[in-house]
């Protein structure tokens, strides 16, 4: 017995084309007790050449739609397909139709999923690029402040080395003073080095990288970059960053970006405000094992209508604003399974806060599983 399953749109393989066409058109089975005898399909090339005898050709129909065709042929014996066998085959064929259709749907689903995966990947890349461009823009705005932040310790080093020379010229050289000067030089050189290092991290194009890091360090580093800019707005910054806040597993540079955005927004909101301009940055660990960071300002505040939209893309109240800063902050925090929100400050201003889960339960800094 030769059994062939012909797919819906599949070109018929080497089979009697006339029979297949008939079944396709009528959606009715064709049964030939003896294909060598007189049949309506006697002119078919295949039937003339091949030695088929019994033929059964069944349409596979699901909900009125032809899904495929089942073709059975016996080239030795005539009258193989008795009514009983045909009944069984018809039943089987309806099952086959369902399975075929399911397989097709499944294949469609898989290819749809693959397409969606590709689109999501492209979206992720676009988002990462956008966030990098936003980071570069902010850093560009900070250029003068950062240059100053690097220049200050260098100027100190210059003065200190002059003083060192003088201590050397003494007779005998004042070694104790020279030692103190060298210690200060080391400290200042490190300070400049640290600023350059965090700057480099913020501007280098690199893939998102997750690792354990200390949020307090992140806040301090960002403050070092933004310090002068914030001071330019006449703002005094207070920090409350207690030791012992748990480390976070995530992308350090992205978190720097979030903190930098919040600080810059707060400073801007205060530049037009009356009264004291104070920014308070705090970190806390909550009893449910999360880390909270808040950036509070005494600026113009956010009214209720704007509060509902500040995290939306392109929402801005600034003449030259892009309205992307907070939206990028929110995607970064969400990607870290955290939450970012806004509360009014008292007596005025805004408090932007975010919460992050401490880490991935699969890997802790102690377990050494982190790659
Ligand atoms: P942009 O700074 O380009 O406007 P953001 O997404 O960072 O974009 O901010 C969106 C809007 O949210 C700002 O235009 C401003 O109206 C409001 N906003 C953000 N931070 C503060 C803040 N600290 N105080 C008052 N308003 C704020």
Set down the secondary structure blueprint.
Blueprint: E1 2-7, H1 17-26, E2 30-32, H2 45-49, E3 54-62, E4 65-74, H3 83-141, H4 143-169, H5 175-203, E5 211-213, H6 215-232, E6 236-240, E7 248-250, H7 252-271, E8 278-286, E9 290-297, H8 304-307, H9 325-335, E10 339-344, E11 350-357
Parallel strand pairs: 6-8
Antiparallel strand pairs: 1-4, 2-3, 3-4, 5-7, 8-9, 9-11, 10-11
Bound molecules: adenosine-5'-diphosphate (ADP).
Number of strands: 11
Integer average pLDDT: 88
Radius of gyration: 38 Å
Number of domains: 3
- At the first level of CATH, the class of the largest domain is Alpha Beta
CATH superfamily of the largest domain: Histidine kinase-like ATPase, C-terminal domain
* Assembly context of the chains: single chain
The shape, in one word, is elongated
| Structural class based on helices, strands and sheet pairing | alpha+beta
In angstroms, what separates the terminal alpha carbons?
59 Å
Task: Identify the strand order in the major beta sheet.
Answer: 6-8-9-11-10
What can be said about the biggest beta sheet?
5 strands, mixed
Tally of DSSP helical segments: 9
* Contiguous uncertain segments of 5+ residues: 361-371
Question: Strand fraction band?
Answer: 15-25%
CATH topology of the largest domain: Heat Shock Protein 90
Could you describe the 3D structure shown?
This protein is α+β, with helices and mostly antiparallel strands. The protein has 3 domains: 109 residues, 2-Layer Sandwich (Beta-Lactamase), CATH 3.30.450.40; 63 residues, Helix Hairpins, CATH 1.10.287; 165 residues, Histidine kinase-like ATPase, C-terminal domain (Heat Shock Protein 90), CATH 3.30.565.10. 49% of the residues lie in helices and 19% in strands. The chain has 9 helices and 11 strands. The protein has a 5-stranded mixed beta sheet with strand order 6-8-9-11-10. The two termini are 59 Å apart. The C terminus is likely disordered. The site of adenosine-5'-diphosphate has 23 residues, from α7 and α9.
